[in-house]
Model the fold of this input.
Amino acid sequence: MSFQPVYVIDGARTPFLKARNAPGQFSASDLAVAAGRALLVRQPFAPDQLDEVILGCASPSVDEVNIGRVVALRLGCGDKVPGWTVMRNCASGMQALDSAVTNIQTGRSQLVLAGGVDALSRAPLLYSDSMVRWFAAMNAAKTFGQKAALFLKLKPRALLSPVIGIVRGLTDPVIELMMGQTAENLAWQFGISREEMDAVSIESHRRVVAAQDAGRFDAEIVPLIGGDGKIFKNDDGVRRDSSLANLAKLKPFFDKKYGTVTPGNSSQISDGAAWLILASAAAVERWSLQPLGRIADVQWAGLDPARMGLGPVHATAPILRRHGFDLEDIDAWEINEAFAAQMLGCIAAWKDADYCREHFGAEQPLGPLDQTKLNVDGGAIALGHPVGASGVRIVLHLLHILRRSGGKRGIASICIGGGQGGAMLVETV
Done:
């Protein structure tokens, strides 16, 4: 298969802000506009010279459903630049990149702003159908007697017990499992202990702290300014005091009796946005652009939804096979840390001869993954996981890692609720 590379010109993201049981200061479009504005202002072309804007979002609010168009207009792209929204759960942002790649390769676009966003702290509270019908009947009631009769039928518990939207959104409707329960499945399948998961969490926090102190995120993060003047400069979910002792105090959340997956070894629910500017070779030449790198291949895969965390294994295997690479031929890896059990499950599956034979027809296991190349600056357990944005963040950060380390190629991959995986092979220029 011929894959014409598409160039990554530049990228930016907001800090990822941890949801703290209340709506955050910034709507999803606020986050996307803040990062996009800072990114576009440093380009040699004007926003209205983009061919399109594509934004991934898993949970847009009802007042900005086509958030891609809303943000394009707010960024000053003008009426003639199309803006649209894509959704592939955890890989919504990566899907936006792939959609841009496809349009550039087919010649329909030359210069595209593509990214992802979610403000999960603003996920709505939902009422049951019976409660909605009660509201509808109350609205239709015309007399005091009719309204009084309806009030007598009101069940206070139904009124005061709305469904938490984020919980419903993180539950697979086909297998009726929350994403954390699928991580429990992987822990059981590969014999992953609670201590191993907590160790992954501690290392994620340690690496993020080291990266923050060394300024390794400075090139990609655009500070946010709240309505009260507060400045948000860094990802705020990292715990500098993370330790085995602290994590051991947390109780399992998804399987309270037998489980080992806790909030401490899971990714954080967060708000954030991330963008990349993608361009064809012709656009690079026209605007004298200096690319960060290029997207050299993309792969999507499907698998058992109850083991969705193994999506990166299924998505990367075809890329490695197409290019004749082994795991060790990749200079850097960014795999989204949905759960520590999911990360450890992927590592175990690559080494499992039976798993590789059954699912990929491989005579040998794909091999051990050098973990010194994996998420070298930490991952979503410490940084946060604004679902729509994470796929873009890992691609952007991977390119920065390759450039600073002198690496040539890297793979960014993500597991996807519903039983899918996505992966992108990127190269430096």
Q: What stands out?
A: The radius of gyration is 22 Å.
